[in-house]
Fold this sequence. Notes:
Layout: E1 3-4, E2 11-15, H1 42-56, E3 72-76, H2 84-96, E4 102-106, H3 114-127, E5 131-135, H4 146-160, E6 164-167, H5 169-177, H6 186-193, H7 209-212, H8 231-234, E7 240-242, E8 248-249, H9 264-268, E9 271-272, H10 277-283, H11 288-299, H12 311-323, H13 335-339
Parallel strand pairs: 2-3, 2-7, 3-4, 4-5, 5-6
Antiparallel strand pairs: 1-9, 7-8
Amino acid sequence: MNILNVPEPVSGGIFLTYKCNSQCKHCMYACSPRIRADWISRGDAEKILHNLSEVFKKRYPEGYEEFGLNLGLHFTGGEPFLNFDLLLDLVRISDRLRMPSVFVETNCFWAVNDEITSEKLLLLKDAGLHGILISVNPFILEYVPFERTLRAIRIAREVFKDKLMIYQEYFRRQIERLNIQGTMPLNEYLKRTGGAGLYYAELIPMGRACYELGKLFRKYPAERFFNESCREELTRPWHVHIDNYCNYITGYCGGISLGDARDLEAICSGIDLDDHPILAMLVSNRGIKHLYDFAVKEFGYRESEDGYVSKCHLCVDIRRHIIQQTDEFKELSPKEFYLNLSGETLPL
């Protein structure tokens, strides 16, 4: 049997949903207002949190609250504050399970006034949330009025003290200096700043960024990436994600499921690659070339004349092509991810 050994996770996040109030051009997980919410069920979430807590007990001391992007547990999406009651319930469950370093990621669309902002953050803290990560960048600025972001930062600092992460502080300072009120289209932001600030955006050329921000990157023919395997990303144990369909996702590789996280033990006991042919190709020595040749032969894939910005771009473009023609590969999940990679949603 051909087995992929997957280590137990050391940190990770749970998607409440792929639905978001924003459709950011850099989103690795193709979140969108147009996606069905399909909230993670409380039962599934509790099972997953229990599984993670058993694994984390081996790695974190009792009462661990050290705060960091790649530590412990976080709740994310999509935008988790779109279903605040569910978020609050999951924080309570994680507190009961004594999960380490629990924080939530948000774009702050909900921070419409001081009273609401303070109420929500205090409820979360009382429920057991250790901290919060507030996303600040020109992509979110297209959708979330900047004054809401500043309000959330100010009040979160009062509530969570040093357990506040601003990702990224560079953009908070820059946008504040520009004295921007409300929202701002990305093109206008680029005109006012010259685009130099995007150097600090830590743009990862995968997911929607490959399609919506391709002009910002140099592109190459497919063959440039043929010698690259994805084994390292697909077996990475830190900052894994589990989505609302219980897909276990590693390496920020949206649209690739290693299995059902409700049975984490089965995943970490080894994945049968004979039963996951796309995964088998990606972790083989031939890597992307293997997947490319397969897609060309079996599904008529054609190389993009415009080229690709990264191996992740080539990989996701091939997978997107395949899933439009067949549902036979269970590791290509969820389908909604592939349908919302670009501004124009693909038909079901």
